[in-house]
Amino acid sequence: MQERLQKLIAQAGIASRRQAEQLIQAGEVSVNGEIVTELGTKADPETDHIKVGGKLINPKIGKREKVYILLNKPKGYLSSAADPEGRNLVTDLIAPKFGKLHPVGRLDYNTEGLIILTNDGDFTNLVASSKTVEKVYEVKVKGLPNENAINKLRRGIRLDDGFKTAPAEIKELKHTENNGWYEVTLLEGHNQQIRKMFDAIGHSVVKLRRISIGHIKDDRIAVGAYRLLDADEVKKFTNPAPKNSARQK
Fold first, then answer.
1. Is 108 a catalytic residue?
2. Is the confidence at residue 30, as pLDDT, over 90?
């Protein structure tokens, strides 16, 4: 049966569908010896020889065990499976026995907290692009923003890069004399969004940590450590309970 190449690459655990599209456009994918760069091209893994980076992926399609890992990411690690600059990667923290994994979405280089790694490209596409999976962060900012400034962020604000943020749920936590602490819930994942949001009101982020992804919370994992997600935890992402969008508070 013919399927889109990006779906087959994701099924093989090579990359997420979005990353697979980038591989195709970069000329890294071939079918029966012919390089394919057009998105939407289909192939049949039963009859066609599909290669990524010169390596045959047919044996991996639909025959690998799917792995889902929850990592408590430290600062100073890149949320990627590769980096031309040679920086530390989140995949470096996972035991080699789990094979090739990629992160679901991203956390900034200097942001800590929970991130999922998997070899399931369909799962990655579902969770990373979802507008219903809430991500919750603890945020420490420089200075003490006033209520009007925080309410602007709750309603949504246009960032310096032109992106208009959706309404966000922001709860005040216990402040210190010089720093505000907040719990921020987002349903979107614009690049460095929380840092840019607080920059926009003149209070830069000092510390940022993601504490939950949808229904997944785990404060028992040490920084740099990880655990496997169980079948029920994974299933809830594909069959979520109905939820309201992020509320203003």
1. yes
2. yes
Say whether pLDDT at 242 is over 70: no
Distance CA 181, CA 145 (A): 10
Residue 19 has pLDDT above 80, yes or no: yes
Task: Name the nearest CA neighbour of 59 among 11, 123, 131.
Answer: 11
Where in the sequence of the chain do the CATH 3.30.2350.10 domains occur? 65-249
The CATH fold assigned to 65-249 is: Pseudouridine synthase (3.30.2350)
Mean pLDDT of 205-225: 95
Domain 3-60 -> CATH class? alpha beta
Helix (H, G, I), strand (E, B) or coil at 96: helix
Catalytic residue among 44, 48, 83, 108: 108
- pTM (2 d.p.): 0.74
Using the CB atoms, write b or e for 17-42: b if 16+ within 10 Å: bebbbebbeeebbbbeeeebeeeeee
